Amino acid sequence: MHSGRPPDPALMAPVSARAAVRYTDSAGLADALPGAQVLFVYDFQTRALPGAWPAADRLRWVHIAATGVDSVLFPELCASEVIVTNTRGVFDTAIAEYVLGQILDFAKDLTGSNRLQQQQVWKHRESERIAGSTALVVGTGAIGRAIAGLLRAAGMRVRAVGRRARNDDPDFGVVTTDLYAELPCADYVVAIAPLTDRTRHMFDARAFGAMKPHARFINVGRGELVVTDDLVGALRSGGIAGAALDVVDPEPLPSGHPLWTLPTARVTPHNSGDFIGWRAEMVSAFAANFDRWSAGRPLDNVVDKTLGYVPGRRRASE
């Protein structure tokens, strides 16, 4: 299922060699589902599956071309025996690089330097160091781990908040479950938690109020992790020093929204993971999983539908 731009047929060749492949958009999903055993949700933002679900008479596996699976998890699917997998692993490095880039932009004020250049103003300024500062990564999945590794390599101290506390995590060291105990200690807070009932709106006025006034907030998870009005309020009041948002709520961000013009906000259009060649890698990841499916082997990146994400290690046992 796609949104106007179907997967490259050449990349889908390993799948079409073994199965009849139907291409459809969201509007045609209900007509295309009868008889289908596998659904490749190439348009990761679609909300069409719940409405088309009654037509899924033989469906056994849904694969989404994204890490987050909130767009395809709904009660009927969760209660069924249909397996859900995601494209975990494709975007890890690119999103980690985006986070480091935004941290460097804040610390070195590269945006401000560019603005001064456009004005042809030569103005000496001092900048912050990121080495020795503390980053709190909220979300301990594969992308959060890639972020932690890159930030540590840049000399930052990294802590994490996750679903399970531990003191010997190989990537984070210390992982706690108490967000409010960690927020006052962080210079940068990075949101990469999956969107679930537990995490929706976890960053609200209370959370921003617990952060240092000089702290910056970076969201590369889901826009709905944040109460947007509370974030705007924190930026306007100086409760926090800045926010870099690759995801927002609502999305796309409407014209005239205050986040567009707040000087301490950085907004990008949900593309932190979209490196050159990402579409091909998404299709290749699905094709590799389809090989496993065809051979009767365990699938990679099976989502725990009660949790809303892939738990534990990236790959299923061989």
TrEMBL record:
Entry keyword annotation includes S-adenosyl-L-methionine: no
Domain D-isomer specific 2-hydroxyacid dehydrogenase NAD-binding: 101-271
Transmembrane spans: none
Molecular function GO labels: NAD binding; oxidoreductase activity, acting on the CH-OH group of donors, NAD or NADP as acceptor
Any single Pfam family the record assigns to this protein: 2-Hacid_dh_C
Keywords: NAD, Oxidoreductase
UniProt cross-references to InterPro entries, sorted A to Z: D-isomer_2_OHA_DH_cat_dom, D-isomer_DH_NAD-bd, NAD(P)-bd_dom_sf
Domain of life: Bacteria
Annotated D-isomer specific 2-hydroxyacid dehydrogenase catalytic domain residues: 27-303
Family: Belongs to the D-isomer specific 2-hydroxyacid dehydrogenase family.
Name of this protein: 2-hydroxyacid dehydrogenase
Record organism: Nocardia jinanensis
